[in-house]
Design a protein that fits this description.
Blueprint lengths: L2 H28 L3 H29 L5 H32 L4 H27 L3 H6 L1
Helix pairs in contact: 1-2, 1-4, 2-3, 2-4
Length: about 140
């Protein structure tokens, strides 16, 4: 998968997640489940940030430096990013759950929804990558 395909895939995941989260949130608001909808929104945002962190890490890992020193710096940045990402999420979850009335179950469902969209999008687009695109046939 080249960089353009990866960006398109991530944009598609975020777009579908936004639509699904919007529909679910409206349904929860109609049902007047305010704590759950707040938790759901927090879960969706946290999962989206985590996915973006993975994208940044994969980009950093796949970039080839011209010398070994730049590769080591990139490696250190990747480690710091990973540790910082999880540390920040733990801190945010602690503050949100401790000091607000947000539903923990809502957070879990929102997080899971984003991951489900990611997996289903990968499943649906997987077979299309294996087939040659009609435009690529004209190039040969």
């Amino acid at each position: 998968m080249n960089e353009e395909q990866q960006d398109c895939f991530i944009r598609r995941v975020y777009s579908i997640t936004a639509v699904v989260a919007g529909v679910v949130s409206v349904g929860l608001m109609v049902a007047r489940q305010w704590r759950f909808v707040a938790g759901f929104a927090v879960g969706v945002v946290i999962a989206a940030v985590m996915i973006y962190g993975v994208v940044l890490v994969s980009n950093a890992i796949t970039q080839r430096g011209s010398d070994s020193a730049s590769g080591q710096i990139t490696g250190r940045k990747v480690v710091v990013l990973q540790i910082g990402k999880y540390g920040a999420v733990i801190a945010v979850l602690y503050v949100i759950i401790t000091f607000t009335a947000v539903s923990g179950a809502g957070i879990a469902v929102g997080y899971g929804t984003t991951l489900a969209v990611l997996l289903l999008t990968a499943y649906w687009t997987g077979p299309s990558r294996a087939k040659p695109h009609k435009d690529s046939e004209n190039l040969s």
